[in-house]
Design brief:
Helix content is about 45%, strand content about 25%. It is α/β, with parallel strands linked by helices and about 300 residues long. The chain folds into three domains: about 90 residues, Arc Repressor Mutant, subunit A, CATH 1.10.10; about 110 residues, D-Maltodextrin-Binding Protein, domain 2, CATH 3.40.190; about 90 residues, D-Maltodextrin-Binding Protein, domain 2 (3-Layer(aba) Sandwich), CATH 3.40.190. Strand 1 and strand 2 form a beta hairpin. Helix 4 runs antiparallel to helix 5 and helix 7 crosses helix 12. The termini are far apart.
Length: about 300
Amino acid sequence: MHKYYEEMSNFGRQIEAFRAVMLTGGMTTAADMMRITQPAVSRLIRDLEMDVKIELFHRKGNQITPSAEATAFLAEVERSYLGMDQLRAYASDLRQSLTGSLRIASLPALALGFMPHCIAAFAGNRPKLSILLDGLPSHLVLERVAGGQFDLGFAEVPADRPLLNFTPIKAQLVVVLPVGHRLARHEKIATGQLVGERIIMLARGSYLRHTIERALGDLGRYERAFESPLSAIACALVSQGLGITVVDPFTAADFLGRNVVVRPLRPDIDVGFSMVTSQNRPMSRVAVEFAAQVQLLADKYLSVLSSDPQN
């Protein structure tokens, strides 16, 4: 029993030092607040990080920056009615990415199908995790990830942007056809085979529209039936027999079994999706784990195109 109270007393002192550092912004000012030496505060913070097994502060020389987990942990510390056991349990949940928040911005082509698929797989055993998914045009995804409104984003990126990191998600353009279309018997479709077809194009202004135009060449050789700002709407029009479309495979995969077939377009054209994170803010554990799962699920998600019997 004596050892238990000793451990609780030590943990309480560590929490006091952590709160002081978070409130004052530095080890020295926290030491003044607690009326102890700066090395004593540093030792308490190191002991706390070892105890809860979370990196609470990023260190660079004499400067320290709170991690995303530290900010979340402080919110719980400030709830004074919580006992120490509850704080330990919350820290354990943070360490295992079972709690906290995740804010995701994605262009609509991914937000309408692939992202919900990833979130369902990731959040299934994390009932305490709060997740926000917003569908935005690519330029707004970049702007708001850079501005800190979102932890990570998914966008069509034509070039590098300052203060952002980009991780490519490999995928190739595909052709979506109504079931029974004359081209459906081909395993792959060359751009030249689409000449004279009624093509449902994406609206001007999107990066993907420019990619498709480069792939098809002279658009005068095709009959443009309709236009839509969203790949999902284009695929829905195809499912009604109103033409064919060329879109990203993530959107196309969601329409399998809905009166369409999907074929690879040749030559291969990279759609250029990227996962976007900020260079200025370290990612939280939960964001890092989600990003890794997205990469793993991308290939598995697209494999349905080759495994679907209708294809």
